[in-house]
Amino acid sequence: MDPGFILSDDSDLQFTLGVTEEQQDMIPPTSKSLRQRRCGHCLLQQPMRSKHCQTCQHCVRRYDHHCPWIENCVGERNHRWFVLYLAVQLLVLLWGLHIAWTGFSYVPTWELWLRTNGMLLAVAVLVALLSLIVLLLLGSHLYLVSLNTTTWEFMSRHRISYLKHCGADENPFDRGTFHNLWGFFCVWGSVVWEQVYFREGSDQV
Q: Which of 35, 43, 63, 166 could staple 51 via S-S, CB 3.0–4.6 A?
């Protein structure tokens, strides 16, 4: 599934600056103003929050991370489906753990119990570990979504041009937990993040 690949400048022209030239002139200058940049790899203009993926060899809108599990990037167009995928995977693992737990046989001695249930115990431990990993992944993604930030922004904000000048607890894209979750799960289509960013910046001037 296309995570939001940026394939040409023409198709992304309306998102390049997020606003028209006339509107740009009306934006008050702030310390957060930045110049749009071209990707050093594919030479396309990058909308805000996009990043070039070295594995996919494409720039991706609202880039989150490249996931080896699905062999694809997680970005603007498939992030919600990735979260749903984690939720379904967790449910399946918990169901498998329940089946393993109910499959244990009662045996009077510990040594005989291990012989009877040893293989099932190993499977149950493996499924429990996988369930824990998926639970942590799902929890971390829901937490980041509630803040309207991405994994890449969370891990590398000190290197990202539009975030490195913000305070440690400052997120120009945060619209409140409810609106962040609503926008992520219920609103379809691209968001012009430049407008959100500069609106927040101008509010603080």
A: 63
